[in-house]
Amino acid sequence: MAEHRSMQRAALLDAARSLLSEGGTEALTFPALAERTGLARSSVYEYFRSRAAVVEELCAVDFPVWAAEVAAAMERVPSAEGKVEAYVRRQLALVGDRRHRAVVAISASELDAGAREKIRGAHGGLVAMIVSALGKMGQREPRLAAMLVQGVVDAAVRRIELGVEDPSVVTEAAVAMALRGARG
Fold first, then answer.
1. CB 26 within 8 A of CB 5
2. Rounded CA gap, 171 and 137, in Å?
3. Residue 145 Cα distances to 32, 68, 176, 184, angstroms
4. Residue 112 gets which letter from DSSP?
5. 30-45 burial string, b = 16+ CB within 10 Å, else e?
6. Which pTM value belongs to this model?
7. Contact 27, 106 (CB under 8 A)
8. How distant, in Å, are the alpha carbons of 37, 70, 72, 102, 126 from that of 19?
9. Disulfide check for 134: which of 70, 85, 90, 145 has CB 3.0–4.6 Å away?
10. 8 and 39 Cβ atoms separated by less than 8 Å
11. What pLDDT, in 10s, does the model give residues 137-168?
């Protein structure tokens, strides 16, 4: 029974990823989740009490995987500058990934305070990955610099999502800006 519930929950999360990736938060509805998974709409409520709960669970499941991929990319390079570059490049490389697209599609204003706080905490953990590297690069305020580098990444993600420029052009510009700023 527990295994069946676990499989159903995983199917619901996978359907939620698809819906968010395809149509943003407006597409994530309980009727749509029920249709995608073949469950009755009332059954969806047995797993999640609200759309915010689905989003919160997605972030809890997907964000650590995404962060681990960024961390692994950073570990492969020895220099502080290389770590900052890997941090930017790996996040931007993940833009096309369904897990990432789902997280980006989520509007924090639709979530309750607890869910927003969990997402902020997870995001803070991601930003913390480059604080040390920025300190080694001579930044007097490495935590602030890390937040600003993440701002460059966030802006680049939005540009890639718009599809106006070639993603490689956006990535190179973001890396150049982040590294120039990191060097001071």
1. no
2. 21
3. 41, 21, 15, 10
4. -
5. bebbbeebebeeeebe
6. 0.79
7. no
8. 12, 25, 28, 8, 25
9. 145
10. yes
11. 999 999 999 999 999 998 998 898 888 999 99
